[in-house]
What does this fold into?
Amino acid sequence: MKLYDELVARGLIAQVTNEEEISNLINEGKATFYIGFDPTADSLHVGHFMALCLMKRLQMGGNKPIALIGGGTAMIGDPSGRTDMRQMMTEETIQHNVECFKKQMSRFIDFSEDKAMLVNNADWLLDLNYVDVLREVGAHFSVNRMLTAECYKQRMEKGLSFLEFNYMIMQSYDFYALFQKYGCNLQFGGDDQWSNMLGGTELIRRKLGKDAHAMTITLLLNSEGKKMGKTQKGAVWLDPNKTTPFEFFQYWRNVADADVIKCLKMLTFLPLEQIQEMEKYEGSELNKAKEVLAYELTSLVHGEEEGKKALEAARALFTSGNAANMPTADITAADLNDGTIDIISLLVKSGLVASRNEGRRGVEQGGVSVNDEKVTDVATTYTAEDLAGEIIIKRGKKNFRKINFIA
It folds into this structure.
């Protein structure tokens, strides 16, 4: 199976400008392609995950990736999928985030020996002359057509600022600049970026009389149609200091039955034949597929050693095995009241519940256990001596902490 056909079989491709041309470029290893990343945080998250996996796949096929960091566009903000305006960022914050991104991207992309590039659009956007942009770029864009773009519709309801209105022009200029500077002939992006990407191919055609291509990646949605990568605590980050390898593992281990095969196809590098065998799994067998998914993705992001640790820790939940790699919660002597701490305070301080009321409900409904023994009395307390031993507190089947007592 050729590379482009595999991308289709894995469900990765949403829209393309010219399928024949794009498939030839990819299959022959002649694509110099870019994907943009706005540095709005100091870590990439699961929302970026599929793009990184796609870049890795294409690089393995001999194509050259360009990771474009939006240091310039981040100073405006992408209105796509937004109902409010993004917060303005300083150059210092953006530069810090760019450095964090490159470190994380290096786990997926080989930047050695001119095999890939990481560039920042601030290098050309910040030096542009406004009048030149209006004359040389703005003249090629129809306002009427821009206003029909999907990326602007949500913002139009609350009021689209002129600042944000320029985002499409800037992203289009990025493709034009990359085409000229580096021979970039293909742009990838999320399906919600389609209008912006077409703007780039059209600008290249009008200005240079040449063809460039665009392809959108299927958005990673769960079976309910919602974007994956969010928990009650917020985004699932690739930075281990923001989302621990174990928490990352557990996120994928706990995906819905209806989503596990799709995630295996789109995000892992396992052969399709192996995944097709797992498609036959039913009922509790699907837990095996989820464990494979979680291990593969944790190893990809954090390394094989962390993947193994997370797998062992997850299995320790259901056995009497070693719990050393479980997520921990620090409890200090200052958290005790007259030498003890009650179960509800323990739940709150360990981060398993957001409030005492939520903790109380969890205990009363039989959803809390300590060392595999159900706790049903909200007045249950633990001494410093209790905490100094091994205490594993669990809420529900999937949320737990190993208590680390600091005397």
